[in-house]
Amino acid sequence: MKIGCPTEIKPQEFRVGMTPNAAMEAVAHGHSVLIQAGAGNGAGFTDADYEAAGAAIADTAEEIFTTADMIVKVKEPQPGERKMLREGQLLFTYLHLAPDPEQTRDLIASGCTAIAYETVTDRNGGLPLLAPMSEVAGRLAPQSGSWALQKANGGSGVLMGGVPGVRPANVAIIGGGVVGTAAARVAVGMGANVTVLDRSVPRLSYLDDVFMGRLTTQFSDKGAVEELLPRMDMVIGAVLIPGAAAPTLISRAQLGAMKPGSVLVDVAIDQGGCFETSRATTHQDPIYDVDGIIHYCVANMPGAVARTSTIALGNATMPFMLALADKGWKQACADDPHLLEGLNVHAGQLAYYAVGKALGIDVISPQMVVKG
Predict the structure, then answer these.
(1) What is the pLDDT of residue 315?
(2) Considering only CA atoms, which of 302, 270, 275, 306 is closest in space to residue 288?
(3) In this predicted structure, what is the pLDDT of residue 244?
(4) Any idea of the CA torsion for 305, 310, 313, 317, to the nearest 10 degrees?
(5) Radius of gyration of the chain, Cα coordinates, nearest whole angstrom
(6) 289 catalytic, yes or no?
(7) Active-site annotation holder among 100, 198, 233, 270
(8) What is the pTM of this model?
């Protein structure tokens, strides 16, 4: 199989879809790899690194989209890239289709087969290709939020860890999964007063044990959120419904209960955001103010630490990429029901129920696609 990896063109996205090590593995399996010139620069990988791994270098994205059997990326294809996708081509990347009807329509119209990193599962019910980026985004969230809290950035001027005689910041993290746990680890380490909310009592028990009383756990419901908001300096939204649009946790009306200069960090913005007032921002222009509350809603947070993120993502995606290349997507998905969960689009049809429900589009069962 010919595997192509273009340069990411989403604003301020410095990651790359394949590491040189992944390219070397693919070549060792008998496949050819085509990398766009400069694709790895933002993550610290040179064209020479890829050539040493056995990959060829292409001057343009057009060359890659025209010749490759499988396109491996990081972020969802942008409008210009979607125009280059063709019938029968395999796309393996993050898609986040539920809040993005335009991309969904374009992928369906292209006739390609699209497998989304974020909906591939594992035997424990986890999301193995989303987890490493969730870890990164979670760890970045308190760090980015603390920057937004600085007065020069519009925040209230509260230091996360305080100083002797001055209280630390109060931080609420809504969602105790991979993102929330990673965020809690960093926020606690920064010295903040942290509360984690979740609807799973066993998960709250786990967090209470792991953090040994260094944070507060609270069952998440509307009343609990409303009670916490007036006291919080920062709220981190860390909820996820796999493949579906994120639920709204804080409405615009509730912003009035928060202290001026408080910060909302929406890690769920890729799935539409979990605050009513959220809208996607970039690393170049990451924050905005609504009713005196600072919002940080960067849609590709891990792109800020591209080296770490690229290697972590490559470690997770490489086995699946090799299975798709070695067996072809249909056999690979037939052999692995967890990879089959990643199938979102095939040959002009949508194949993921949560996306269809969110966008009002008819869906075909992925099992039927594989059998067809």
Answers:
(1) 96
(2) 275
(3) 80
(4) 170
(5) 21
(6) no
(7) 270
(8) 0.90
